[in-house]
Amino acid sequence: xxxxxxxxxxxxxxxxxxxxxxxxxxxxxxxxxxxxxxxxxxxxxxxxxxxxxxxxxxxxxxxxxxxxxxxxxxxxxxxxxxxxxxxxxxxxxxxxxxxxxxxxxxxxxxxxxxxxxxxxxxxxxxxxxxxxxxxxxxxxxxxxxxxxxxxxxxxxxxxxxxxxxxxxxxxxxxxxxxxxxxxxxxxxxxxxxxxxxxxxxxxxxxxxxxxxxxxxxxxxxxxxxxxxxxxxxxxx
Length: 236
Known about the structure:
With 236 residues, the chain is α/β, with parallel strands linked by helices. Helix content is 39%, strand content 15%. It has one domain (2-235): Aldolase class I (TIM Barrel, Alpha-Beta Barrel). Helix 1 (13-29) runs parallel beside helix 9 (220-235) and helix 8 (196-203) runs parallel beside helix 9. One of its GO terms (molecular function) is triose-phosphate isomerase activity.
């Protein structure tokens, strides 16, 4: 089971360091053998002696260069990072990344052997348009992606559920995960208003291999509880 925290544009460098140290201590003290990922804000990236996997929320597909506001592989190498989040809905819908841009990033970091957490999902209007149109929309996000890449993790996030408090029914999650599992053998995470009070139930669903958590992961105690749920489910 994989439990991943996307901290987005939250927590200072000091707060992030305390977060990761607390999580690492929790994982070691409780002998957790599930995979824990943390994606800090760019300014909080650093080198950490931890069993937790630290990843970048974003990077430009270059070693370095004249790309104002971006970071490249040179910066990730400094901290020994080999994990990256690609295709998150906020990058697609707020920052305007097209599938071509996302594919360029995917292929670049794939060639470097990165673990890639690749995000797909649909906005509300596509869901309400019916299953066929919704799946066409999601399928387009797989265009060009090597779904058999051995270091790939896919995260399904219904865009309309992120940060809204709305969550698909368990039946909805089961149905979409069943379809997406046909497209790739990669672990498949669920993301979209995952909280402490629903994380265990969601992770117990068929074809859900873990969760990608946003705002509900900002309190490390809450995220540790979700990690505990993953361990409990694995031990059943």
